[in-house]
């Protein structure tokens, strides 16, 4: 393999050779599109820090579902903005809550679409934390029951998969338990197994109005400095019955995706979060980067690191590019 016998450029000569030896691909089927659902009618308002991303009312979901499926993006991840918030986040498991109505609407109008739901409390609590607060701290064990109720209410409304994002200890087991007791043993759990306390969630917190009103999320989300801890978190979730392990954010944590890919045999999902999307969009709007090429390259890097599934606000745009 010494020059000139081996010339690496031989197989880079033209696109046909390059395509023949390409190691990583992206398909619309790998992508999950996040949707923000809000109360009201006929609403479609753009999130200012996320150009091209809209908060929509329930009646707009059928149209959105049709567009996704037309592009080959067959899965969505739902986030809800409730009409009102309280200290216990009771809107999250209300039978007629925003997510429960959104799920029913999608199941009625687009039954073939796979509807995944974010299971958390922060959009529904007045204090904006992902759990129940007792004595000024987010109380782990009392939060578990509420999370389980939320997951069950999503399942009962017709969700195809639940995705707990709260980072409480033991929540996968608790959710698996209540789902099985209620005959939802076939409903998978995509666990936000490795979720860092990241500043890249900024635009999402505007979109979902869920920024913590006091303090931060560092007592439950992971320290960005840690990798061994990610393996422990993932191990626990596997033992508790997770079906898919998620890493979040994606681009600043490609090493974590790669480690999980090597150490575990479950499917890996990565969440390319709001801040990653916003950075690329902002640079493109200024003419500083080619937005389309950087979108493609960033998604490729996440797949190359080992993610099977990518949750991304670029899902429709990337699918359009792939479909030519
Ligand atoms: C709620 C939740 C967050 C995101 C997904 N679910 C925000 C947070 O934890 O503060 C972030 C998604 C994004 O930034 O795109 N627990
Ligand atoms: Zn939360």
Structure description:
- With 324 residues, this protein is an alpha/beta fold.
- It has one domain (26-323): Alpha-Beta Barrel (TIM Barrel), CATH 3.20.20.70.
- The chain contains 11 helices and 12 strands.
- The protein has helices at 15-20, 61-70, 98-109, 140-157, 171-181, 202-207, 228-240, 254-263, 274-285, 291-305, 315-323, and strands spanning 31-38, 44-47, 50-57, 75-80, 114-119, 132-134, 137-139, 161-164, 190-195, 244-248, 268-272, 309-312.
- The strands form 2 sheets. Strands 1, 2, 3, 4, 5, 8, 9, 10, 11 and 12 form a 10-stranded mixed sheet that branches.
- A hairpin with a 2-residue loop joins strand 2 and strand 3 (50-57).
- Helix 4 crosses helix 5 (171-181) and helix 9 packs antiparallel against helix 10 (291-305).
- It starts with 14 loop residues before the first helix and ends with a helix.
- The protein binds ligand PBG and zinc ion.
- Residues 118, 120, 122, 130, 165, 201, 204-205, 217, 273-274 line the site of ligand PBG.
- The site of ligand PBG has 11 residues, from helix 6.
- 5-aminolevulinate 1 binds at residues 205, 217.
- 5-aminolevulinate 2 binds at residues 274, 313.
- GO terms for molecular function: porphobilinogen synthase activity; zinc ion binding.
Largest sheet: 10 strands, mixed
Shape call: globular
Helix content: 25-40%
**Hetero compounds:** ligand PBG, zinc ion
Mean pLDDT: 97
| CATH level 4 superfamily | Aldolase class I
Total beta strand runs? 12
Distance N to C terminus: 38 Å
CATH architecture: Alpha-Beta Barrel
The number of helical segments is: 11
Strand content: 15-25%
Question: What is the string of SSEs from the N terminus onward?
Answer: HEEEHEHEEEHEHEHHEHEHHEH
Helix/strand structural class: alpha/beta
What is the name of the CATH class? Alpha Beta
Catalytic activity: 2 5-aminolevulinate = porphobilinogen + 2 H2O + H(+)
Binding site for 5-aminolevulinate 2: 274, 313
Binding site for Zn(2+): 120, 122, 130
GO biological process, one term: heme biosynthetic process
